[in-house]
Amino acid sequence: MEVSRYPSTLRHIFDVPNLILCRTPESHHHQQESQDNNNNIDMAIEAWYMDDSGDDQRLPHHKNPRVFVPLSKLAEIGVMYWKLNPSDYENDEELKKIRESRGYNYMDLLDLCPEKVENYEEKLKNFYTEHIHGDEEIRYCLEGSGYFDVRDKDDRWIRIWFKEGDMIVLPAGIYHRFTLDTTNYVKLMRLFVGKPVWTAHNRPQEEHPARKEYAKNFIEKAGVALEAH
Ligand SMILES: CSCCC(=O)C(=O)O
Ligand SMILES: [Fe+2]
Ligand code: NI
């Protein structure tokens, strides 16, 4: 992926160690591991356009036929992605580098199961209500899995399958939601710059400063980026 094909407003997101932008062999230094483990060459995160059926939110909701979304497309809407090794996350140099370069000094863990979370059902319901935040949402999957749904430039849902070792950053102001999948469990790390603010602002939020900034950088400029190339 050539950084130069993105507008300058987007380039800052590439200035980060080990960011994975597309599925090239070079970017997959855990590929061998992954092949050994599950015989799956394509170890990058999977994302796809959702159908609009009203079935259980924990099901995959693929379109028929399936329409996958490449990481380059996620990068265009400001979503960043890394693949890390969660087995020894407390001593992971790669994670340390990312945290330093992005200023993620705050960190905590969230174990999403009814025994450990107060108001479990209510929290899950709120997570799946479409919202934005005034800051980035940074999540690193240590165990289990789930789905982050994000809106593309044309307001269609993209479902991102978030699994062990996946670290993603949703930019401030992007409309999104989260659900567990049918395995019903996730343990994740939450990161933040400074004192954390988890406030969710439910859609519509067109006048929220973070939304305006997001729209300016990632939606309005989308056409310009295409024309320039
Ligand atoms: C379970 S973390 C993801 C849910 C979410 O969107 C949030 O915390 O704001
Ligand atoms: Fe959120
Ligand atoms: Ni790695």
TrEMBL record:
Q: Where in the cell is it found?
A: Cell membrane; Cytoplasm; Nucleus
Query: What function does this protein fulfil?
Result: Catalyzes 2 different reactions between oxygen and the acireductone 1,2-dihydroxy-3-keto-5-methylthiopentene (DHK-MTPene) depending upon the metal bound in the active site. Fe-containing acireductone dioxygenase (Fe-ARD) produces formate and 2-keto-4-methylthiobutyrate (KMTB), the alpha-ketoacid precursor of methionine in the methionine recycle pathway. Ni-containing acireductone dioxygenase (Ni-ARD) produces methylthiopropionate, carbon monoxide and formate, and does not lie on the methionine recycle pathway.
* UniProt topology in membrane: Peripheral membrane protein
- Keyword Amino-acid biosynthesis present in the record's keywords: the answer is yes
What's this protein's name?
Acireductone dioxygenase
Pathway as given in its UniProt record: Amino-acid biosynthesis; L-methionine biosynthesis via salvage pathway; L-methionine from S-methyl-5-thio-alpha-D-ribose 1-phosphate: step 5/6
Cite the entry's keywords alphabetically. Answer: Amino-acid biosynthesis, Cytoplasm, Dioxygenase, Iron, Metal-binding, Methionine biosynthesis, Nickel, Nucleus, Oxidoreductase
Which cofactor(s) are needed, names only? Answer: Fe(2+); Ni(2+)
Q: Tell me what reaction this enzyme catalyses.
A: 1,2-dihydroxy-5-(methylsulfanyl)pent-1-en-3-one + O2 = 4-methylsulfanyl-2-oxobutanoate + formate + 2 H(+); 1,2-dihydroxy-5-(methylsulfanyl)pent-1-en-3-one + O2 = 3-(methylsulfanyl)propanoate + CO + formate + 2 H(+)
Q: Which InterPro entries match?
A: ARD (IPR004313), ARD_euk (IPR027496), RmlC-like_jellyroll (IPR014710), RmlC_Cupin_sf (IPR011051)
Give a GO cellular-component term.
plasma membrane
Q: What does the note under cofactor report?
A: Binds either 1 Fe or Ni cation per monomer. Iron-binding promotes an acireductone dioxygenase reaction producing 2-keto-4-methylthiobutyrate, while nickel-binding promotes an acireductone dioxygenase reaction producing 3-(methylsulfanyl)propanoate.
| Biological process, per Gene Ontology | L-methionine salvage from methylthioadenosine
Entry EC number(s): 1.13.11.54, 1.13.11.53
Q: Which Pfam families match?
A: ARD
Regarding protein family, the annotation reads:
Belongs to the acireductone dioxygenase (ARD) family.
Locate the residues binding Fe(2+).
131, 133, 137, 176
Domain of life, source organism: Eukaryota
What does the record give under GO molecular function? acireductone dioxygenase (Ni2+-requiring) activity; acireductone dioxygenase [iron(II)-requiring] activity; iron ion binding; nickel cation binding
Q: Where does Ni(2+) bind?
A: 131, 133, 137, 176
Q: What is its main location?
A: membrane
Gene3D superfamilies for this protein: Jelly Rolls
